[in-house]
Amino acid sequence: LPGSLALVCGRWGFQYGLETLVSNIKVPSSVSLAVNGAVAAFMLRVCQDPFNTEKRMGGFIVGTPFSIGIWGWPLALLTDQPWLYFFSTGYLASLAQGVAHYYAGEEGTLPQLANVSDEYAHTTFFPNILLHSVWQSLNYGRGPSML
User: Is the whole model's pTM more than 0.90, yes or no?
Assistant: First the structure.
């Protein structure tokens, strides 16, 4: 818990500092267009192999679209683009879900889902699954990771 609290506080502190730093800076539209082009090119590249099974782009998280959840929001703040902030935090939620699967010792389900009905069922019931897994881990210990 102290590590998680430090991580959250550090993240909020970094965001506050970045927002304060760039609040008086007007970014030229050419920079925003360049950032948008780079993000689009990156997403087109990683969507071909979203789970980086071929390890073409280095480490696992670097070569996946989920990495934008880590580096997308600072770009959004620097270029004053709210759409990029919300786009990147959507991937951050999926990344957090993968981390929850890892620490719960359960196999991640996103790579297994093949049709839309499975995805709807998964996203609908995930909060319940997460609460059950936390309860089970607190009572019986963490299971072996299957990732």
Answer: no
Closest CA to 94 of 59, 76, 119, 75: 119
- Is 1 buried (19+), middle (13-18) or exposed (0-12) by CB count in 10 A? exposed
3-state secondary structure labels for all residues of 19-49: HHHHCCCCCCHHHHHHHHHHHHHHHHHHCCC
pLDDT in tens, 82-136: 888 888 888 877 777 777 777 777 776 666 666 656 666 655 566 666 677 777 7
Q: E strand or H helix at 82, and its extent?
A: helix 82-104
CA contacts within 13 A on the Cβ side of 65: 17
